[in-house]
Write a structure and sequence with these properties.
By secondary structure, the chain is of the alpha/beta class. The protein has helices at about 15-25, 75-85, 95, 110-120, 135-140, 155-175, 180-195, 205-215, 245-250, 285-295, 310-320, 390-405; strands spanning about 5-10, 30, 40-45, 50, 65-70, 75, 95-100, 105, 200, 220, 260-265, 270, 305-310, 310, 325-330, 340-350, 350-355, 365-375, 410, 420.
Length: about 425
C-alpha cells in the first residue's frame, strides 16, 4: 500500500493540522515524522479549538492509529500536559497513540541550553522558541542523546545524569545570566516520564512495514514548513530537522518508492515567525490587515507572525524539492476586501531577474518582482462549493496552478473543518 505525505510549503503555520483532520477519515494510520513541541497544529470543529504539539492531528478520529515517529523529539513534560488537555474528550489514547522507541527525548537541561545559547547571541539570535529542540537534535547528531527506548532500561537515570551534567557544564560556558531550579525541573520531568511509560512504545519502522504489507493506508504528517528545513530552508534561520518529503523517509523508516501522493499546503499569502529573510513581507497596512484578519499568532508560542504577499518563487522551490502532486490553499478568506493583490513571480537578484530561489535571499540581495491581481469583496466563510467563489479568486487560483504546474485540490475558507472546499 502506498504512503501519502502532507507537508507545509512555506515557513510553517500553513494550516496542516486542519487538513490532516479533514483527510484522516481516508487513512488507517497518521504518522508524525519530525519536529518538536514548538509546532502547534490547530484544529477547530464543533465550536472547539484544539492545539496539538506532538500528538498527530488524527487523534480525534476513532478509527485512526496515531504514530509519533523516530524523527520527532519529545518533551515528556509538554507531552503530559497535552495528554491532560485531551482527557476531557474521552479519547482512547492508550490504544490509538503509539510512540517510536527511536524518538529522542528533550531533557530539562536541553531547554536551559537553548535559553543560554539564544541569550549569548544578542542581536544575532535566530528566534528560537526555547523549547530545547535545537540542543536535542544536536545531541542526536552528536550521538549523545537519550531516546524513548532508553526509558525501558534499568540504567536510564544514570544515562540521564551523565547527559545533564554535560549540559550544565555547557551552560556555564555560555556565561549568561539565566535563573533556574534544576531539581524542580527534574522532578517534573521524571514524573512525566512515568506517564509516558503508560503508552505503547514500538519499533516504528517495522510496524509501518507490516502495516503497508497488510494494506493499511498511511498519511505522514510534517511539522513546520519546507522553508525551515535545516538543509533547504533559509539557513541559519531554520528548524533543526528535515521538514521536506525526504524527512518522512528518515523520520519514519519508509522507503522513498513507497510514497505516492505529496500534499503541499500553503497560505494564499505568506507568513513567518521569528528572525530571518522574508522578501515579500509587507510593512504597511496590508501586512497588518493579514495579521489581524488571519489571527496570525502562534498557536503554541503566541508570537505575532510577520505577514506579506504570496511568494511564488519560494513556493515553486518548495514544490520542486518535495515533488508535490496536489496543492491545498489555506486562508483564502483572509484576502477578501483587498482592492489589489500582489504576487511575487520573480526576484531582482544582483542586477538580474531570476525566477528561482538563490542561496541568499537577504534584503540587500533580493527585491521581489510583483504581478498584481484584482481583489474581491465577498465573504467566503459561508461558501461550500468552488462554483460559489468569486471570479477574481478563481483567477488567482488558476494563475497559481499554471505557474506551479500542480493542481489546487482544496481551498480553505475558514478555520472549521467544515469550511473546506473541494475543487
Amino acid at each position: 500500500m502506498a504512503v501519502d505525505l502532507l507537508l507545509g510549503l512555506q515557513w510553517g503555520d500553513e494550516g496542516k493540522g486542519k487538513i490532516v483532520d479533514v483527510l484522516t477519515s481516508k487513512y488507517d494510520i497518521i504518522a508524525r515524522f519530525q519536529g518538536g513541541p514548538n509546532a502547534g497544529h490547530t484544529l477547530e470543529f464543533d465550536g472547539i479549538k484544539h492545539v496539538l504539539r506532538t500528538i498527530p492531528s488524527g487523534i480525534f478520529h476513532k478509527n485512526s492509529i496515531n504514530i509519533i515517529g523516530n524523527g520527532v523529539v519529545i518533551d515528556p513534560v509538554v507531552f503530559k500536559s497535552e495528554l491532560d488537555g485531551l482527557a476531557k474528550f474521552n479519547l482512547d489514547i492508550k490504544n490509538k497513540l503509539i510512540i517510536s522507541r527511536k524518538a529522542h527525548l528533550i531533557l530539562p537541561t536541553h531547554r536551559l541550553l537553548d535559553a543560554a545559547s539564544e541569550a549569548s547571541k544578542g542581536k544575532a539570535k535566530i528566534g528560537s522558541t526555547l523549547k530545547g529542540i535545537g540542543p536535542t537534535y544536536m545531541d542526536k547528531t552528536g550521538r549523545n542523546g537519550l531516546r524513548v527506548g532508553d526509558i525501558e532500561l534499568e540504567d536510564f537515570k544514570e544515562r540521564y545524569q551523565t547527559l545533564a551534567d554535560k549540559h550544565e557544564a555547557m551552560i556555564k560556558f555560555y556565561d549568561v545570566n539565566i535563573q533556574y531550579n534544576l531539581a524542580e525541573l527534574e522532578k517534573e520531568f521524571f514524573d512525566a516520564v512515568e506517564d509516558l511509560k503508560q503508552l505503547t512504545f514500538i519499533d516504528s519502522e517495522e510496524y509501518l512495514h507490516q502495516a503497508q504489507k497488510s494494506g493499511k493506508s498511511i498519511l505522514c504528517e510534517g511539522a513546520q514548513g519546507s522553508l525551515l528545513d535545516v538543509d533547504f530552508g533559509t539557513y541559519p534561520f531554520v528548524t533543526s530537522s528535515n521538514t521536506t518529503a525526504a524527512g518522512a523517509c528518515t523520520g519514519l523508516g519508509i522507503a522513498p518508492n513507497k510514497i505516492k501522493e505529496v500534499y503541499g499546503i500553503f497560505k494564499a499569502y505568506t507568513t513567518r515567525v521569528g528572525s530571518g529573510p522574508f522578501p515579500t513581507e509587507d510593512f504597511e497596512e496590508a501586512g497588518d490587515i493579514m495579521a489581524s484578519v488571519g489571527n496570525e499568532f502562534g498557536s503554541v508560542t503566541g508570537r505575532k507572525r510577520r505577514c506579506g504577499w504570496l511568494d511564488l518563487v519560494a513556493l515553486k522551490y518548495a514544490v520542486q524539492i518535495n515533488g508535490v502532486t496536489q496543492l491545498m490553499m489555506m486562508k483564502g478568506d483572509v484576502l477578501s476586501g483587498f482592492e489589489t493583490l500582489k504576487v511575487a513571480t520573480a526576484y531582482e537578484y544582483k542586477g538580474k531577474k531570476i525566477d528561482h530561489l538563490p542561496y541568499n535571499i537577504e534584503p540587500e540581495n533580493v527585491t521581489p518582482v510583483y504581478q498584481e491581481f484584482k481583489g474581491w469583496k465577498a465573504d467566503l466563510t459561508g461558501m461550500s462549493s468552488y462554483d460559489e467563489l468569486p471570479n477574481e479568486l478563481k483567477s488567482y487560483i488558476e494563475f497559481i496552478e499554471k505557474e506551479l504546474e500542480v493542481p489546487i485540490k482544496i481551498v480553505s475558507v475558514g478555520p472549521d473543518r467544515k469550511q473546506t472546499i473541494l475543487k
